[in-house]
Amino acid sequence: MLKKLLNISEPTKPQTPYQAIGGESATRLLANRFYDFMENDPHAKDLLDIHPKPLDSIRVRFFEFLSGWLGGPGLFEKKYGHPRLRARHLPFKVTAHQRDLWMLCMNQALEEVVTDKLLRRQLQASFYQLATHMINTD
């Protein structure tokens, strides 16, 4: 009552990246566009070659991971437990070159899906840091 009389509003909660890019539909689009670029960009062939085919199930798992990683529902964790990304990638040789190819695809997907330039740059930096952490081979 006092807040209303004094015309004081509640502070707005900051949006998560998940909310800022458009929630579930945009997150699903980001995951799918990432794999679309991987499948169709000849520069990403080396990266595509190490992924199991068809890519249908990995597209879904990536969307589920991105949902929680971006601050939305923790779909991946509910199904599979903690992501433990580095541990999950240890059976595969991940090089700096593969990281760069991964970022090539992700940057193209981010360009299409994330309209806010500052948020896009922040996500690019976060994805780069995450992708670099996956490197396990010189």
UniProtKB/TrEMBL annotation:
The keyword DNA-binding does not apply. GO terms for molecular function: heme binding; metal ion binding; oxygen binding; oxygen carrier activity. Keywords: Heme, Iron, Metal-binding, Transport. InterPro entries: GlbO/GLB3-like, Globin-like_sf, Globin/Proto, Hemoglobin_trunc. Pfam families: Bac_globin (PF01152). SUPFAM superfamilies: Globin-like. It comes from the Bacteria. Belongs to the truncated hemoglobin family. Group II subfamily. This is Oxygen-binding protein. It comes from Catenovulum agarivorans DS-2.
